[in-house]
Amino acid sequence: MGISGRAGGHAAGADLAGGGHALTTVLPSVSWIPLASAHAERADEMTAGHRARKAAGEKHAIEDFLYDYYGTRPAQLRRWHPGVGTGLAPAPDGLADQAAWKFYTTLPDGVVTLDVEAYMQARGESVRYIHGLLTATASRPAFSGCFGLHEWAMVYRQPEHRRHPLPLRLGQEQTDKVVEEHPIRCTHFDAFRFFTPEAVGLNRLQPTRATQVDLDQPGCLHAAMDCHKWASKLGPAVPGALALDCFALAGDIRLLDMQASPYDLSSYGHPPVKIETPEGKAEYVARQREFARRAAALRARLIRVCEELLGPALAAENREAVAPHNL
Q: What is the pLDDT of residue 164?
């Protein structure tokens, strides 16, 4: 099964990588080795602070969320994957390291690529779910009137047992007042499930895991952060650059999420976004909309990864299945 166009890094598309999926690109070693190295360097730079704190036994109320909640491992993040449809030609000293990694296969001519058939046998159900959820989310208009009040609802009437060991910027009484004076409309189940019992009934919606496909919308900070979650779950099918772009966005959003929260972040040197004021609301909405724009581009790229895995027929079938949710 020879692959044409090898020198230029492009395959003719006739070679199969399991399950009838065609390779669209084969990268020569002079291309993929620098890409893998640059990826590892970028990942190391992004996780340096966390790794240093972990070695010293220190906690970080803002950044630890990316690792504790999402289960992100720096070693896994620094692994470069070419992505579905891309093969790695042998280097002068042998096969690409990915040849020994899970879900990869080596073709007779030494090209290493994702084994789509094996991957889909193990993760096909997850791919279909992720594709459906992202497609439904992308179909909706972005709502930007929540002002990050989910974090306030998580401490409402809760003087003890807070999620973060930080003081409240306004104190408990004034924090509760902000919650009571604002409409709460949280659409994201994984934020809503941390509301205090007293705050649950204040939310205009009652999200559940079963209704996530119905409710996730592209203006939600947590839905945008979840691009990192879905990229991680898709794992080796996701090109390395896309995986790190999703992680970078999650980190940027997490900062706003906490700046707009009721917590006092002065110990970290970050000014608050005072969403209880008109000026704070305006700042929050402006930054939220920019994050929604960035997330939309990443979400579209993740959808394309899913559709390459599913193939045209299954992708179309999956889109049709979630169409009733695209309201």
A: 85
- Mean predicted confidence (pLDDT) in 102-130: 97
235: left (phi over 0), alpha (psi -120 to 50) or beta: left
The strand pairing partners of 94, in sequence order, are 91
Whether the Cβ atoms of residue 223 and residue 295 lie closer than 8 Å to each other = yes
Contacts of 315 (CB under 8 A, 6+ apart): 131, 306, 307
Pair 21, 83: CB distance under 8 Å: no
**Residues 64, 69, 75, 79: is their CA dihedral positive or negative?**
negative
Max distance between CA atoms of the chain, in angstroms, equals 71
CA distances for 227 relative to 52, 156, 292, 297, angstroms:
25, 28, 11, 10
As a whole number of angstroms, the distance between CA 148 and CA 169 comes to 15
User: Beta strand 112-114 with 25-27: parallel, antiparallel or unpaired?
Assistant: unpaired
**CB count, 10 Å around CB of 142?**
18
Give tens-digit pLDDT for 263-307: 999 999 999 999 999 999 999 999 999 999 999 999 999 999 999
CB 229 within 8 A of CB 70: yes
Two tokens, residue 204: 């205009």
Only one residue has tokens 């990942």, namely 43
- pLDDT per residue as tens digits for the range 76-94: 999 999 999 999 999 999 9
